[in-house]
Amino acid sequence: MNAATYIFWIVFVIPLIVFLAWLMRQDKRKGKIGFIILAVLIVGVIAYMYWKKMFDQYVPQYD
Fold first, then answer.
1. If 5 and its partner were Cys, which of 1, 32, 41, 52 is the partner (CB 3.0–4.6 Å)?
2. Tens of pLDDT along 7-34?
3. pLDDT at residue 46 in the model
């Protein structure tokens, strides 16, 4: 992994996980809101990747 990957994890992923954990602990309905937000984020990211055609990119084959 390169430096950009570590910066991404530090700036985006770790705060998101901390926020979702905090949100689930605040929810009195057994964490349903946190799971709903997580599901919406996952669906949104997958839809965005299909929209930008990131799954159709050329994958180099190594011999």
1. 1
2. 877 888 888 878 877 877 787 776 677 7
3. 77
- The C-alpha torsion from 29 through 31 and 33 to 35, rounded to 10°, is -140
Q: Give SS3 for 1.
A: coil
Q: Domain for residue 59, yes or no?
A: no
Domain that holds residue 45: 3-51
Looking at residue 9, the DSSP 8-state letter turns out to be: I
Q: How far apart are CA 13 and CA 7, in angstroms?
A: 10
Q: Is 11 helix (H, G, I), strand (E, B) or coil?
A: helix
Q: Tokens 């530090």 appear where? A: 10
Token look-up 């949104």 returns 44
